[in-house]
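User: Second chain of the day. Same drill as before.
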Amino acid sequence: MAIDVVYFAWVREAIGMGAERVTPPAHVVTIADLIGWLRGSSEGHGRAFADITRLRAAIDQRFVALDTPIANAHEIAIFPPVTGG
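Assistant: Same format as last time:
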């Protein structure tokens, strides 16, 4: 199953791209699993995903916890926590 993964803010800058289409292996079940799997994709992914506690996610434009299953997701967004002011 191919999924569009979209990156924002410093996550995008560290990885060096705003989005990519990936086909995770069967053992990748949650967003946290996906981040762990993607961490090994490149040096930039490794930097961006080094500390998972600094990341937030959305599936198909709905905010979700990192332990949320990715089954049937079309798009997953990964970004830093949003702050207002």
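The helical segments are 9-15, 31-39, 43-48.

User: Great, on to the next one.
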